[in-house]
Write a structure and sequence with these properties.
Blueprint (H helix, E strand, L loop, with lengths): L11 H6 L3 E5 L7 H14 L4 E5 L12 E5 L2 E6 L2 H4 L1
Parallel strand pairs: 1-2
Antiparallel strand pairs: 3-4
Length: 87
Amino acid sequence: MTKPFHSHPGSPSSDLKQPKILIFDEATSSLDRETADRFAQTLNRLKGQVTILFVAHQVPRGLAVDEVVTLDTNAAARPGFNQEEQA
């Protein structure tokens, strides 16, 4: 009989419960607008608690972001964020 597994601070399994970074790749691309808005609200509540990397063709409406980096095949990455771009 095996012993139950107990998580200890600093162990890999405890890190999974409180990750330092979350990566989303096209997480809202197939969601309807209402669900995508709720998803953005949930991510906004995590702001300041965890680093979030969000890869998308378009920033979801209502997602509070600190910075957007635009990748283009004809140009280098362009860091920066313009609030009008999100609308």
